[in-house]
């Protein structure tokens, strides 16, 4: 864990933009030679996120503020929402790989941005009017995280080095999580005087299934490493470094992308819907979905492929 991590959080002023040439070079950066970047007019482009297509039907979303340790600003909250809504509607996209560029996965909320946004409430003396401003701000942040859960495409998150505060909110909204050996995690919010309010308190207990340990982590804000994250079930697998993690998780993404998008996307819908509901309600939900989906051509294609031990191509959804 970095000794001077607090100094890296970006509490001092950030450097100005490198301009269009710098952004162009950054956008077309090859990540350690692992992934080739395939661009098309269908790939959305953002300022704080880098979107590429390393394999057919697999879209790679990277947090892209490396000089600021990928700290999350007002703009990034918005772009996360816009990004995952866009990919949800993109029929070419079947699986999403989520990772980050730079030294750390994310340092969490950008405090400069947070203080600037929350200071707008100080323009009012009345508590109700202050609360309305803060409600809008919190909703804006929550929507950025929840967009991952609302996206029907499976999202595979790969964490390296630090994953702090809002980073934990972000990965718990993903479907599957992996990390590198040097990864460490921290539910940081109580250290900065607030209760986590964009998803960790709601999702982490369900992901881990151990409310005692989760409450300890949230009450103390202590750091925990990749080994403990694996033991808790927060991550599915730990890799030696980011390069091997991306390479292996990409293979998993390709496997998922080869399946029927009708089956995969409705599987996610049912899992998300049933997560906090009684079994009978979840069963009724998937029954209503499959009344229509069992009539899809994908079912016939899959049955033939299984019977003939062959592969098949599915239409985009």
UniProtKB/TrEMBL annotation:
The HTH CENPB-type domain, residue ranges: 1-34
Give the matching InterPro entries: ClpP/crotonase-like_dom_sf, Ech1-like, Enoyl-CoA_hydra/iso, Enoyl-CoA_hydra_C, Homeodomain-like_sf, HTH_CenpB_DNA-bd_dom
SUPFAM superfamilies membership: ClpP/crotonase, Homeodomain-like
Annotated pathway, please?
Lipid metabolism; fatty acid beta-oxidation
Q: Which Pfam families match?
A: ECH_1, HTH_Tnp_Tc5
Query: What stretches pass through the bilayer?
Result: none
Per the record, the domain of life is Eukaryota
Example GO BP: fatty acid beta-oxidation
Coiled-coil blocks:
none
Q: Where in the cell is it found?
A: Nucleus; Peroxisome
Single annotated GO MF: DNA binding
**Role:** Isomerization of 3-trans,5-cis-dienoyl-CoA to 2-trans,4-trans-dienoyl-CoA.
- Its recorded name reads Delta(3,5)-Delta(2,4)-dienoyl-CoA isomerase, mitochondrial
The root-end lineage is: Eukaryota, Metazoa, Ecdysozoa, Arthropoda, Hexapoda
């Amino acid at each position: 864990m970095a000794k001077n991590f607090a100094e890296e959080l970006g509490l001092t002023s950030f450097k100005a933009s490198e301009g269009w040439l710098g952004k162009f070079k950054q956008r077309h950066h090859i990540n350690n030679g692992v992934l080739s970047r395939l661009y098309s007019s269908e790939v959305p482009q953002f300022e704080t996120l880098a979107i590429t297509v390393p394999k057919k039907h697999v879209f790679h979303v990277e947090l892209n503020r490396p000089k600021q340790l990928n700290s999350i600003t007002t703009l990034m909250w918005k772009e996360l929402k816009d990004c995952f809504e866009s990919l949800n509607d993109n029929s070419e996209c079947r699986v999403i790989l989520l990772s980050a560029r730079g030294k750390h996965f994310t340092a969490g909320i950008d405090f400069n941005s947070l203080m600037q946004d929350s200071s707008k409430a100080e323009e009012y003396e009345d508590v109700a009017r202050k609360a309305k401003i803060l409600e809008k701000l919190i909703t804006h942040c929550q929507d950025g995280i929840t967009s991952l859960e609302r996206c029907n495409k499976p999202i595979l998150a790969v964490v390296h080095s630090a994953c702090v505060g809002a980073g934990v909110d972000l990965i718990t909204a993903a479907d599957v999580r992996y990390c590198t050996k040097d990864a460490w995690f921290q539910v940081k919010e109580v250290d900065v005087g607030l209760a986590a309010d964009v998803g960790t308190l709601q999702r982490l207990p369900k992901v881990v299934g151990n409310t005692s340990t989760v409450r300890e982590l949230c009450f103390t804000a202590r750091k925990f490493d990749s080994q403990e994250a694996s033991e808790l079930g927060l991550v599915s697998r730990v890799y030696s470094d980011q390069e091997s993690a991306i390479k292996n998780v990409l293979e998993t993404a390709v496997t998922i992308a080869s399946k029927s998008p009708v089956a995969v996307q409705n599987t996610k819908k049912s899992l998300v819907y049933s997560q906090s509901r009684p079994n009978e309600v979840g069963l009724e939900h998937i029954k209503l979905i499959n009344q229509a989906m069992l009539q899809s051509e994908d079912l016939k294609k899959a049955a033939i492929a299984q019977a003939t031990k062959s592969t098949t191509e599915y239409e985009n959804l």
